[in-house]
């Protein structure tokens, strides 16, 4: 049979398929890759994806616009709360007992968030004992993924430490130069707790602010992680402080969009520090916020606007900063929402054990609340909840006795996913440095 002859039952030879260019995920441009990443459910999932290989990490880290857009679509997740060690009396002749803040995680179904918590150092084991101080630590602030802790007696030399539980490293201690902040004070000077100032665009950098006051003035002292030096700012007169009290500022601080707030002890005035200019100002609080039964905190809405969130009984209200016809900025009521119905649905019959809500803190469009009785009952633990300020919907988190201050810990954008991160990747073309618990 000739070459071109074939049996009628013989099949013709199969045609070779034409060669076509195949597209793999590594062929995607950075723009397409980032569009895919925008559809990931949470920051923890993004971190796991970005650290899978060096090109993906570089695509995420080199795009500030992507970071901003991802934050808009996916609010930074709450991982849990740090609680300060309970205050207990101890005889001064006895050696100080170890005391650490405790951490309570939220119960999330997101496996990536759960993995991030499991792989982190929320027991704060990275803190080493200070050579000259008792091993007792109080928590003062949680911000930008960092935890600010303080060691030592309030009226003696103290040391501070700033740690990131999700990227634990041995941190050098910060000696706070306690005596210098009171130089030039009038009467009995008092120092209040410290707060953290962090930058989203440079997560490796932070500042620590200490506030002091005397009879009628306030002063800020600022530590910079970049220079590791303190800068003492001048004393500033403020109006309206209570005349009968030397301790006329509350031992607390609140933050919102570059401003730090402290409230007078009589709840009449609020002192504001502009952290960009380091200038102080003071203004009277709205009349109904002066109610001792009113719990409130300053924070920001989901769109980034400064706001005050308050609670009276089971009603939560939101106030925004507005400019009136005379060009004067004031706090104006935006809305007030009764939450009785939602609490009935969440707590059922247990709701009768409580008669009010407390505002723990306000962050990034969420208010963190705790149920309470007007007369504290140690046998009746509080329920901690989050309230979305956009929808005014409650989410139950966990139950715990309130015996000390509470600080929400919110997952921050990892330093390794920012272009100006100070430590480069390894030369390996496929794997990233192990910079995150999900790695």
Automatic annotation (TrEMBL):
F-box protein AT5G49610-like beta-propeller domain boundaries: 139-416
SUPFAM superfamilies, per the entry: F-box domain
Disordered: region residues: 1-23
Pfam families named in the record: Beta-prop_AT5G49610-like, F-box-like
Boundaries of every F-box domain copy: 30-70
This protein's name: F-box domain-containing protein
Taxonomic source organism: Paspalum notatum var. saurae
